[in-house]
Task: inverse folding
């Protein structure tokens, strides 16, 4: 499905690098290296230095064990996300996934990745946002990432309610995330290691809500891979 989608979009309008304009991809390798600044080994929630991106003790409640973030939500990274989600350039998801796959490789060896045998699960998008954009950006990103890593992806999480969190205060976002998710395929995730995937994390309310739901459903371990952190 992703291959066909890329082929059609590429035929109608060949992708161009959002930074330098070269044809072939939404973000070329040279611009990705020069302009996507690694987030580094920090706790995803508080920003404190943390070895290998492990969630620090003070931020651990209902959080993934590790959260690997590619970069900060600014400049070229922000532009790439915006053209992917809001400008109809779905093929830009392939560039997001490429950067995220590289980030995963920075923290895990191939042997470690094989041993963990993650199931990739996207954070569900509100159906109102899917209708507005014409697609589920999280699900498509997970498919691109699955191709990049060879890991399987399943749409195992469902979302209750359609409240939009973007722009809400931190305390409101945290409250909204409580009990927001449910597991629609519990027999497929029980005892498994899960890699949650999303494009942006802000307060982490959705990440915590999804993690709590997955743990209650019997998963073995929950980690997360995020493209950008909104500072």
Result:
């Amino acid at each position: 499905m992703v291959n066909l989608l890329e082929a059609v979009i590429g035929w109608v309008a060949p992708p161009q690098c959002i930074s330098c304009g070269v044809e072939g991809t939404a973000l070329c390798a040279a611009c990705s290296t020069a302009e996507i600044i690694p987030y580094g080994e920090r706790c995803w929630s508080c920003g404190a230095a943390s070895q290998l991106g492990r969630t620090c003790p003070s931020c651990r409640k209902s959080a993934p064990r590790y959260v690997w973030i590619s970069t900060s939500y600014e400049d070229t990274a922000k532009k790439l996300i915006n053209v992917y989600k809001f400008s109809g350039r779905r093929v830009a998801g392939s560039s997001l996934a490429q950067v995220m796959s590289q980030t995963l490789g920075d923290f895990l060896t191939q042997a470690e990745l094989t041993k963990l045998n993650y199931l990739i699960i996207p954070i569900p998008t509100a159906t109102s946002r899917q209708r507005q954009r014409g697609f589920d950006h999280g699900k498509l990103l997970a498919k691109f990432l699955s191709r990049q890593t060879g890991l399987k992806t399943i749409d195992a999480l469902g979302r209750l309610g359609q409240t939009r969190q973007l722009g809400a205060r931190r305390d409101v976002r945290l409250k909204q995330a409580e009990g927001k998710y449910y597991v629609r395929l519990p027999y497929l995730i029980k005892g498994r290691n899960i890699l949650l995937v999303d494009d942006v994390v802000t307060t982490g309310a959705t990440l915590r809500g999804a993690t709590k739901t997955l743990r209650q459903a019997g998963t073995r371990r929950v980690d997360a891979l995020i493209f950008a952190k909104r500072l």
